[in-house]
Write a structure and sequence with these properties.
- The chain has helices spanning 23-29, 65-85, 101-107, 130-133, 145-149, 156-162, 169-175, 216-230, 245-254, 271-284, 288-299, 307-318, 322-335, 340-345, 356-370; strands at 2-3, 37-39, 47-52, 55-60, 90-94, 114-123, 139-142, 178-183, 186-197, 200-207, 235-241, 256-268.
- The protein has 372 residues and is α+β, with helices and mostly antiparallel strands.
- Helix 10 packs parallel to helix 12.
- It folds into three domains: 2-112, Aminopeptidase; 123-262, 3-Layer(aba) Sandwich (Aminopeptidase); 286-370.
- It is built from 15 helices and twelve strands.
- The longest helix is centred in the N-terminal third of the chain and has 21 residues, at 65-85.
- Strand 10, helix 8 and strand 11 form a beta-alpha-beta unit.
Length: 372
């Protein structure tokens, strides 16, 4: 693999033709986001690799085993070093189509990334008036220097998202835009532009947990699109996980239309964390034997996350392995990974509700939580 000189970026553009809906990638190709582009041949490239933050992109035509080995060296070398240095512990790998999957499996086989479904939406037309949706006591504010100059109880809730794509708050204010939802001195939600490129942008959106399921996300999205159109943005895109029903529903309610489903790979650079996450994905998809296997494998590795004990306990309980479940849950109490509410509310632990040992663990958690 060869690092493509900046003045030669144009050689890579045709390879990414099928990935127009990924605006972060288009921003790289437009030179608006500084990112390395690696190709298999500088003069006549057949495939390319690039990345921005934790978003990784492959395009062109997949190569042979030697090409996979060359790509693996770049991924495990400069890509991983730069990602970890920037504080990114995970990556999302996007690619043009299913023909890439054998090549990716060969390249990243020891990393065992998780294949996930993704969805892309594009704004079509507003389906409501956001002003009429605004609850009493709340305000929708433009995200600008004047807003940030005011005293907020939780300013980091907004500013941390502002620098998720831009290098600084100042750079965001100069090149991006957005709206946020406030009440008194608190920021309750935000909807911000991402990868503004060629009269296009994408949406980053969230509302605080205590005010969700009230239509506020839809309202923020509508207010954001109104601002985007006033700024001359012609196309607003929205990416989300295929299993994030709430995000997809919010997009549709705000007037976005579903454009495409596409696959991606999600992975964590730390092997123990990646293995534990594979356990989590298996658990929430009711693959309990697979979940338990991955959780226990993660727990046998150094630097395993403490929350894997809880997941292992849940998986074992669903498999009817009570003693095994209790052994893992006892470690939850010791390591402090979860609180008593997680024990009480988890649907995976229903079979243990009347178990004496389980309730003794619950009492210990209650005492520990009260002592915090």
């Amino acid at each position: 693999m060869f690092l493509l000189p900046l003045e030669e970026i144009g050689r890579a553009r045709p390879l990414f033709r099928k990935m127009d809906m990924h605006l972060a990638l288009q921003a790289i190709l437009a030179g608006q986001v500084e990112a390395p582009i690696y190709v298999d041949d500088v003069e006549h490239p057949h495939f390319a690799l690039t990345w921005a933050m934790s978003r990784v992109y492959l395009a062109g035509k997949p190569g042979n085993r030697a090409a996979a080995e060359a790509l693996r060296k770049v991924f495990n070398g400069v890509l991983m070093r730069e990602a970890l240095k920037a504080g990114h512990e995970a990556y999302m790998l996007s690619y043009p189509d299913a023909s890439w999957e054998p090549f990716i499996a060969l390249t990243l086989q020891e990393r065992e990334p998780i294949q996930v479904g993704r969805q892309y939406y594009a704004f079509k037309e507003a389906k409501a008036n956001w002003h009429a949706m605004l609850p009493a006591g709340m305000q929708v504010r433009a995200v600008d220097a004047a807003l940030l100059a005011e005293k907020w109880h939780n300013p980091e809730y907004l500013t941390e998202e502002m620098v998720s794509e831009r290098p600084s708050v100042e750079d965001f204010l100069a090149k991006s835009f957005g709206v946020c939802l406030t009440r008194d001195d608190e920021i309750l939600g935000w909807c911000l532009s991402e990868y503004n490129t060629h009269h296009r942008c994408e949406v980053g959106i969230a509302t605080r947990g205590d005010v969700r399921k009230r239509g506020l996300g839809t309202m923020l999205a509508l207010a954001f699109v109104e601002m985007a159109e006033a700024r001359g943005v012609a196309r607003v895109g929205w990416h989300c996980s295929a299993n994030n029903a709430a995000s997809g529903a919010t997009a549709l309610k705000a007037g976005f239309e579903h454009v495409a489903d596409y696959p991606a790979y999600l992975g964590w650079f730390d092997p123990a964390l990646n293995t534990a996450q594979r356990g989590y994905f298996a658990l929430v998809n009711d693959n309990f034997a697979d979940a338990l296997n991955h959780y226990e494998k993660a727990l046998s590795m150094s630097e395993a996350p403490d929350w894997a004990y809880f997941g292992a306990g849940c998986a074992a309980a669903m498999l009817g392995q009570t003693e095994r479940a209790l052994a893992h849950l006892a470690n939850v109490v010791e390591h402090g990974a979860e609180d008593s509410d997680d024990f009480r509310e988890s649907k995976f632990l229903t079979s243990l509700r009347e178990n004496l040992a389980f309730n003794l663990l619950l009492e210990k958690l209650d005492k520990r939580d009260k002592g915090k």
